[in-house]
Amino acid sequence: MEGNIESLERLTNEFSKLPGVGKKTAGRYAYYIVTGPKERAEAFAEAILEAKNKVKFCTRCGNFADGELCNICKTRDESTICVVKEPKDVMAIEKAHSYHGSYHVLHGTINPLANIAPKDIKIAELLERVVKGETKEVILATSPDVEGEATAMYIASLIKPYNIKVTRIAQGLAAGTQLEYADEVTIARSLSDRREI
């Protein structure tokens, strides 16, 4: 487009590729970088490259790590393993400060429509940990969508023969939700997962 500066357009385009960033927000980010001090832009670029070069996946659980093992695997035992889809799910659970066991990141869920089979995610690695370790409970914390449910049921069927407790995270109404705005499936799940008080 006439009047546009190619390098600014390229920067805006790169920002717009980030999840949840539209063209307008990408333009604001690009403007912020271009109008700020050069040192800020250099620090930003260095932080991106450093993270890209140094962050790996933990060889035990699959979470983000800066060495062979993540900080969680270095300090926690294997008696309880919480199974999640992505490393960002580990971060979400850790923010609650209520779980103190270890994790296993699947890096996906079973999805036949997208040609993702059990062999394409880290289920075999989970079984290897469970079979040889001191695991007493596996908590399945995949999302309550079709793929997450299918993955949880599949994993449960593989682990139960080893006489290890398999649990599923509770699902239902979120705190602060108005009952009248909840869908039927959520209400039904809330009723079936109710607990005594």
In terms of DSSP E residues, the strand content is: 5-15%
Computed structural class: alpha/beta
Number of structural units classed as domains: 2
Largest sheet, order of strands side by side?
Answer: 4-3-5-6
* Average pLDDT metric: 90
Order of helices and strands: HHHEEHEHEHEHEH
How many helices? The count is 8
**Rg, alpha carbons:** 21 Å
User: Which CATH architecture of the largest domain would you pick?
Assistant: 3-Layer(aba) Sandwich
The CA-CA distance between the termini, in Å, is: 64 Å
CATH T-level fold name of the largest domain: Dna Topoisomerase Vi A Subunit, Chain: A, domain 2
- CATH C-level class of the largest domain is Alpha Beta
Q: Choose one word for the global shape.
A: globular
- The level of helicity is 40-55%
Unreliable parts: none
Question: How would you characterize the largest beta sheet?
Answer: 4 strands, parallel
How would you characterize this protein structure?
This protein is α/β, with parallel strands linked by helices and 197 residues long. The chain folds into 2 domains: 6-54, Helicase, Ruva Protein, domain 3 (Orthogonal Bundle); 71-168, Dna Topoisomerase Vi A Subunit, Chain: A, domain 2 (3-Layer(aba) Sandwich), CATH 3.40.1360.10. Helix content is 45%, strand content 11%. The chain has 8 helices and 6 strands; from the N terminus they run αααββαβαβαβαβα. A 4-stranded parallel sheet has the order 4-3-5-6. Strands 1-2 form a two-stranded antiparallel sheet. The N and C termini lie far apart (64 Å). The model has no long low-confidence stretch (mean pLDDT 90).
